[in-house]
């Protein structure tokens, strides 16, 4: 069947629309991907901050990233030692090189953890005394502040991405409908990552109050 001029125009128009839709979707996906990446980093950082707040329980996460001055360089403790938890309130830190023990003890003493390290010549021992009620409340307040910092970072990613999407719509790269759909998706992603922070905060709060 021979296709007339009108049919060719329609086909061409559809092809152009499909091409524009593809470009629009690609631009939107790029913005959304960048936002998701930033939000994921914010959540990961918040969880890392939670791990650095001590409870009455022994955990390597509390000290593994502690900076240690060793042979003129600053390195995280986890690169210098292995960890074990022989009991709920005791952490063993075993240096890979015994010569690192003084530097490790010094780093622990200078930290704000309020723990007193001891050693038997092979292993550094950290005893975790139960937290007082006052300290528990202080730490709960601290993790709530860290959670809010995380939420702020997530919302900042959403705000910046919205600006990028609005700029695309203003320049005619995406349609108003595209913008609305993209913003709705961005809001869903934001809520997802905020919920993840809330869940981590809830778990850490329980740990602090029970530890």
TrEMBL record:
InterPro entries linked to this entry: Ribosome_recyc_fac (IPR002661), Ribosome_recyc_fac_dom (IPR023584), RRF_sf (IPR036191)
One annotated GO molecular function: ribosomal large subunit binding
Family statement drawn from the similarity comment of this UniProt entry: Belongs to the RRF family.
Ranges for domain Ribosome recycling factor: 47-209
Origin species: freshwater metagenome
Protein name as annotated: Unannotated protein
A Pfam family annotated for this UniProt entry: RRF
This protein's record includes keyword Disulfide bond: no
